[in-house]
Amino acid sequence: MPGLGGRTSLPPERMTPVRVRGKRGQRARQRALREQRALQEQRAQHATNGQPAVVSPDSAVKPTSSKLECLPTEILESIFLYSQNFALPSVSLTLCRALASPHLKHLTLCSFLTVSDDESSNLGRIQSQLLRCRWMDLAMLRRAQKDHKLSTLRYGCEVPTKVLHGPWTNDKIEMLRLLKKLRAKLDWETSNNGEVADQSLKEAIIQGNAPMVDLLLNRWEPYPNIYTCIVPVTQEHLRLAILQGGCRRNIIDDILHAGRVQRDLPDLHLGDSDIVDWAIEKKAHGDERGSWLLDLVSAEGTCT
């Protein structure tokens, strides 16, 4: 039948429905937002009640093992030793459990820490990586020294960061002492270990931790007469020991001794004006530290 403008109108059953874009998508987005708000409210309610949020099993992500983790333990141990990648156990809990046997640790010590020859130029670097492992503690190092006749570490082996900072324990102090005896060095060029050790020395001076001060300073070893470098002592260390560290005699003696034997560094000056003023003030109040320090200044002829 004719319609407006002379056009013919189709009956309703023959009309093609027109899709209005966005309506169905909008409804889906609104439904997702409502579900998300409901889930957030549920979690907030559980948190308010002191209960953990409940996650449905369908939404939980199920962990999957990699092909490497599915290998037999014997093959994983061979890969660990051949690759020399001592960080491999930290990749996953599965690898950590598989590579934590005492047998593997024994093989690792024999293979890299207590070898009798030095065919590999990278052996010092490999030993440094081994010392950084969490399981390589004082007990393991002593075992290598006793059972495997470990007498020295290879050139380039570095002191690990874990023994260069607090909190200080007896094991940490003894491990640093043993590493120093085995000729491990401190890397000042390619890592921040030097800065860590220097900061630890300053903290030990202020806290009056005499054993750590002794270990971290430059010292001549009586045998085999090797100059072992840990942290070079400077005028700043001397000032800290006197002005902030309580002027403890044993620490002052260690600092002055290290300053006398170290090479290619400026001499220490007890005649520093702040040090002299501190000593004069303490002596005026009857503090024997002031008199003792002024006697040192006079004996060395550094008073200005």
Task: Please specify the SSE layout and strand pairing.
Blueprint: H1 23-48, H2 73-83, H3 93-98, H4 102-113, H5 123-131, H6 138-147, H7 170-181, H8 193-207, H9 210-216, E1 219-220, E2 227-228, H10 235-244, H11 249-261, H12 273-284, H13 288-300
What is this structure, in a nutshell?
The protein has helices spanning 23-48, 73-83, 93-98, 102-113, 123-131, 138-147, 170-181, 193-207, 210-216, 235-244, 249-261, 273-284, 288-300, and strands at residues 219-220, 227-228. With 304 residues, the chain is mostly helical.
Tags for this model:
304 residues, mainly alpha, two-stranded antiparallel ribbon, disordered N terminus
Structure in words:
It is a single chain. Strand 1 and strand 2 form a beta hairpin. This protein has helices at 23-48, 73-83, 93-98, 102-113, 123-131, 138-147, 170-181, 193-207, 210-216, 235-244, 249-261, 273-284, 288-300; strands at 219-220, 227-228. The protein is mainly alpha-helical. 51% of the residues lie in helices and 1% in strands.
Name the helix and strand elements from N-terminus to C-terminus, one letter apiece: HHHHHHHHHEEHHHH
Number of strands: 2
Please give the largest β-sheet. 2 strands, antiparallel
The chain-level structural class is: mainly alpha
Low-confidence stretches: 3-7
Radius of gyration: 35 Å
